[in-house]
Specification:
The structure holds 2 protein chains of 2 kinds.
Chain A: E1 2-12, E2 18-30, E3 33-37, E4 40-43, H1 46-61, H2 65-73, E5 77-85, E6 90-98, E7 101-112, E8 115-121, H3 130-141, H4 145-149
Antiparallel strand pairs in A: 1-2, 1-5, 2-3, 2-6, 4-5, 6-7, 7-8
Chain B: E1 8-9, E2 12-13, H1 23-31, H2 34-37, E3 47-48, E4 60-68, E5 75-83, E6 86-93, E7 97-104, H3 107-114, E8 150-154, H4 170-173, E9 175-176, H5 181-192, E10 201-205, H6 215-224, E11 229-234, H7 237-241, H8 243-252, E12 256-260, H9 276-286, E13 289-293, E14 295-296, H10 298-301, H11 305-314, E15 319-326, H12 335-341, H13 345-355, E16 366-367, H14 372-382, E17 396-405, E18 408-411, H15 418-433, H16 438-449, H17 465-476, H18 481-489, E19 492-497, H19 507-510, E20 515-518, E21 524-526, H20 527-530, H21 538-544, E22 547-548, H22 549-556, H23 569-574, H24 576-581, H25 593-603
Parallel strand pairs in B: 3-5, 8-10, 8-20, 10-11, 11-12, 12-13, 13-15, 14-15, 15-19
Antiparallel strand pairs in B: 1-2, 4-5, 5-6, 6-7, 9-22, 16-17, 17-18, 17-19, 20-21
Classes of the chains: A alpha+beta, B alpha/beta.
Chain lengths: 156, 609
């Protein structure tokens, strides 16, 4: 299945000021262990990446390509897309600085008929506490909770 | 009912099968239909995001955004450019060519308004999964930035008027959309589930909602479901002739009647010029407030915006506000024709300034999100999420008007430093968020409030300083809804709400929309996708959950073709309310009777002669 991550910096003032910086990582689960993988990097193409971008950041940061358009006007959108071909369940992590406020986004995808289907997203709409999230995410990844927790030392 | 979606008849279910189910059962059935009704990529729209339109010589790029093609509704890139002190939107559809439209008639005002933009906390309880680009994924989806400030529910598509431009009403549409009471209750409940702030204000609209015999029950249901504010949007004919109806609506819990009012003469308001005096009279007797809602069109009634405001002030004992809506252009209209119609918020403000002799100036108006600091201040004091207005700055503007007489209009900005108050509250909220003691901050902010009110410039009845400050104190500290109500009774709310059309569409605006429609399938959709992309939203969903005309006539025992209002102008003009209503505003009796008749007929409303 094809998975993308986005490393980007965006700043816009219209209609409202916002600056967001995000860096993505992708992990595969092999033998019940997380392994970070590298994708093929390329530049962002609005017509190809718009929906994927919205799916990663619409629900989590309320950031969409409609916002990005305003940043492109000022040449303040810099984005590298990493494309992965992955098999099995994957964990996508983003470290984000949103108007100077640090955030971490967590997503889990599983393959279904060759497509990456989102099984979990740390979103605005999912407001559970870390402990129950940890159980849910590690269950989906079939990992020990302690192994997952190593990625989130600040939350332990 | 079975577990599968109700039996489909091409583009409609058999509504008779679900109308009498409980709200929960209806919800279960209609939500299964959402995938069938969702906009289909490649069928309903395409996505063209490869290039941005050019910026021409002599123009300055303001920003870029996304829009739709007015002909095929496909998603396209757009630029906003500054030219001759105005802001224009330009976009190119690879299939239908270039479109350019006036977006905002004054660049300096665009910049002043933009500085007040505040984004909301979004919607934590989306009704649909994010699976398509905006605006083909409504809703609401997790991208949406504002909660519902006003929920609209269309309760019928029947109407007794036959306005020439309308293709929406049942007889022309060929079906009757009229959700059952339990279906309406389901829609109301869906919007009450919204977090972080559930819908608290609802407007029943149509068609003509007062044609429903059970409209009073509908209002009552909204109250039962927890709505604090209930309004009914009407052309007013039934209210003009049935005094008891206004009383029943108020007793059931209606707060205000939203009524179309396009001008002070028969030429500019052929829709209800003759009925409005009787509507106001009956609302007055029922003690039920009205908001006048003029649709402003450049070559049609822009020249009367000042008179409309004076009419509102004259009837301010019962008129709570005037909410003007610059025209939203429907259908394929050539550019030259659009230029005769198009007005934007700054154009209307400029005309108001001119027509009130500078009594209401452009700088007396603020964009809607200006008041967001009030919500944030109350939120940090109470620790509870608050209702907040965070639509796009280009969507709406408002001010409050006071007066010593109809000829002495005093906007709130003449005696209250609105910007100063909002900055004070914003700073106080931020201080509390950063950890300062909230009681210390609250006390400090309240003691400073007096500095922002210059009572010497206030209307005479407010010159006792404490009276005005007491309202503000009660609103901010006691969070007192009745204090807000009393503030409204002492003033006239003036608003402008510019709903978009396909020519000036801006996805950034629609993502911030806070005037929503409850769809019969449980989705909640921004006003400007519901009405601007009707084939994908409004019409598709309403048709799907409708009766055939024959079914409706059989159930009701009435004929749709006979539901036509015929106006008796002579009788209406001879009544005392008509004689008083326009006195001092427009000399309506100097207009020959024949011209009254012609104005009505030309508009599509027959006259009894």
């Amino acid at each position: 299945m094809m998975v993308k991550t986005f490393d980007f910096y965006v700043r816009f003032d219209d209609p409202a000021p916002r600056t967001v910086k995000a860096k993505g990582r992708l992990y595969l689960v092999k033998n019940r262990r997380l392994t970070e993988v590298q994708g093929t990097a390329r530049t962002f193409i609005l017509s190809e990446d718009a929906l994927h971008f919205d799916m990663d950041f619409g629900d989590t940061l309320q950031l969409s390509v409609a916002d990005i358009a305003h940043a492109i006007a000022r040449d303040e959108f810099d984005c590298k897309v990493s494309v992965y071909e992955a098999e099995g369940v994957v964990l996508k992590l983003y470290d984000v600085l949103d108007n100077n406020s640090p955030k971490k986004l967590v997503m889990v995808f599983k393959p279904n008929k060759g497509e990456a289907v989102e099984r979990y997203v740390w979103s605005m709409t999912n407001r559970a506490q870390w402990r129950s999230r940890k159980t849910e995410i590690s269950g989906l990844l079939e990992l020990h909770e302690a192994d997952l927790a190593k990625l989130f030392p600040d939350w332990e | 009912m079975s577990d599968s979606a109700p039996a489909l008849m091409l583009d409609r279910i058999n509504y008779l099968q679900i109308k009498d189910l409980t709200p929960d059962e209806i919800g279960e059935q209609v939500k299964r239909c959402i995938p069938l009704l969702f906009p289909k990529p490649g069928v309903d729209y395409k996505v063209h995001l490869s290039d941005y339109p050019p910026v021409h010589e002599g123009e300055e790029l303001v920003t870029r955004t996304l829009s739709v093609c007015p002909y095929c509704y496909s998603l396209v890139t757009a630029v906003l450019v500054k030219r001759d002190g105005k802001v224009y939107e330009r976009k190119v559809c690879p299939e239908h060519g270039e479109f350019e439209e006036l977006y905002f008639g004054d660049y300096s005002l665009y910049e002043r308004f933009r500085r007040w933009q505040k984004d909301g906390k979004g919607v934590w309880t989306p009704n649909v999964q994010l699976q398509a680009l905006c605006p083909y994924n409504c809703g609401l989806c997790a991208r949406h930035k504002s909660h519902t400030a006003l929920l609209n529910i269309a309760v019928t598509n029947r109407c007794e008027l036959r306005c020439w431009y309308c293709f929406f009403y049942a007889v022309k549409a060929g079906y009757v959309y009229e959700p059952s009471l339990n279906h309406i209750r389901f829609m109301l409940r869906e919007a009450r589930k919204m977090l972080p702030y559930p819908a608290v204000a609802v407007q029943f609209t149509g068609g003509e909602p007062l044609l429903r015999e059970d409209i009073v029950d509908i209002v009552r249901i909204a109250r039962e479901e927890g709505y604090h504010h209930v309004q009914v949007n009407t052309e007013g004919v039934r209210l003009a002739f049935e005094p008891d109806l206004a009383v029943k609506l108020r007793e059931a819990g209606a707060n205000v009647i939203y009524i179309s009012f396009d001008g002070v003469t028969p030429y500019t308001n052929p829709k209800n010029h003759w009925e409005i005096p009787y509507v106001l009279e009956n609302l007055r007797k029922a003690k039920l407030g009205a908001v006048l809602v003029p649709t402003v069109i450049k070559e049609y009634n822009l020249h009367e915006v000042g008179s409309i405001i004076r009419f509102g002030v004259k009837h301010a004992d019962i008129v709570r506000g005037v909410n003007m809506q610059p025209v939203s252009i429907v259908g394929r209209v050539p550019r030259r024709e659009r230029e005769k119609l198009r007005v934007t918020i700054p154009d209307v403000l400029a005309e108001i300034e001119k027509q009130t002799g500078g009594q209401i100036r452009r700088d007396d108006w603020y964009p809607v999100p200006t008041v967001a600091p009030i919500s944030r201040f109350v939120e940090v004091i109470t620790g509870r999420p608050q209702f907040e207005l965070t639509c796009h700055f280009a969507c709406g503007a408002a001010t409050y008007l006071f007066w010593d007489s109809v000829d002495e209009l005093i906007p709130i900005t003449r005696f209250v430093d609105v910007a100063g108050v909002m900055e004070l509250l914003d700073k106080a909220a931020n201080d509390i968020k950063r950890g300062r003691n909230k009681y210390v901050v609250l006390l400090s902010a309240l003691t400073k409030l007096g500095k922002y009110v210059d009572v010497s410039q206030a209307p005479r009845r407010f010159r006792k300083k404490r009276r005005f400050l007491r309202y503000i104190f009660n609103i901010l500290v006691r969070h007192d809804y009745s204090a807000l109500g009393e503030f409204h009774y002492q003033s006239l709310f003036l608003g402008l709400m510019h709903f978009m059309d396909t020519y000036n569409y801006d996805v950034s605006r629609v993502q911030r929309c806070e005037v929503h429609y409850a769809m019969p399938d449980g989705r909640i959709v921004p006003f400007c996708t519901f009405n601007v992309l009707p084939e994908m939203y409004r019409d598709r969903a309403q048709k799907f959950f409708s009766y055939t005309m024959e079914e409706w006539e059989k159930i009701s025992g009435r004929k749709l073709s006979e539901e036509v209002y015929v106006r008796n102008i002579k009788k209406l003009m001879s009544g005392e309310p008509y004689k008083r209503a326009y006195e001092g505003i427009a000399d309506v009796f100097s207009i020959p009777y024949e011209e009254h008749v012609m104005a009505s007929k030309r508009f599509g409303i027959p006259v009894e002669e």
